[in-house]
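QA checklist item 7 of 12: single-chain prediction sanity check.
[x] sequence parsed
[x] length recorded as 268
[x] structure emitted
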Amino acid sequence: MSTTTGTPTEGSLMFDAGRRLFWTVAPFVLIAACWQIASLFFPPYLFPSLIDVFARVVEILTTWSQFSSVLATALRILGGLFGAFVIGVLLGVLIVQFQVLDRLLTPVLIFFQGVPALSWVVFAIIWFHGVEFRILFIMIVTTLPAFTFQVVGALRGMNKDLLEMVMSFRPNRRKFFMAMVLPAVLPEILTAWKVNLGNASRVVVVAELVGSSGGVGYQLLQQQQLFDMAGALAWTLQLVFFVLLFQSFLTFIERVAFRYRAVSERSL
């Protein structure tokens, strides 16, 4: 029996899924192959074999004294992002509601965006004594502008006609928030989390390099002093794995929250 014209068959769906998987994996396979070939011609302290790197990755994941450093870095990233997110939402709402605050706070946030992360690290070391508070401060101040501007853009970008239609039903605050504000703001918030997650992972390593006695950044400093390239790669991959894992979690939230949309309308 022939299938309906235009309806994808099971075979075509499997082929499309396989093609997407191939193009997802192929770049990483190419990088790994080039690295392994380079390891045949260069000394291990420059290009260690992938077997050595994999062994170090397994060692980190199975040794609590080392894996605890990965968890410490992950908690620092999430704690800093959550703090910046809460403050950013509050500032974003205030900026949209009050023009005076818009004129005062927006230039300050733009100025903060231009300050290098390393400068914030130096400031934090001079200003504060506690290591964890230093790192929390650095994480918040470097990711706060992006959260704030995303919230401001989302609130100002709400459809005016749709807003008037929703208000015509005289909803209470909860219904207005759930029906109008949250669907408008959530895509921008998720985008901000995805962007800031990558930025935060780089900033936290810099902060741990100069001001911490634990974490991935501290461990990378130890590998640099030992000229241990396999260890440096293994610790770097721990951070990459965390970012990919949390990015997948954010993508899952996005798919669940916007499952009512057509696939073409969802962010990639």
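[x] summary fact logged: The chain has two domains: 10-41, 51-265.
[ ] second reviewer sign-off
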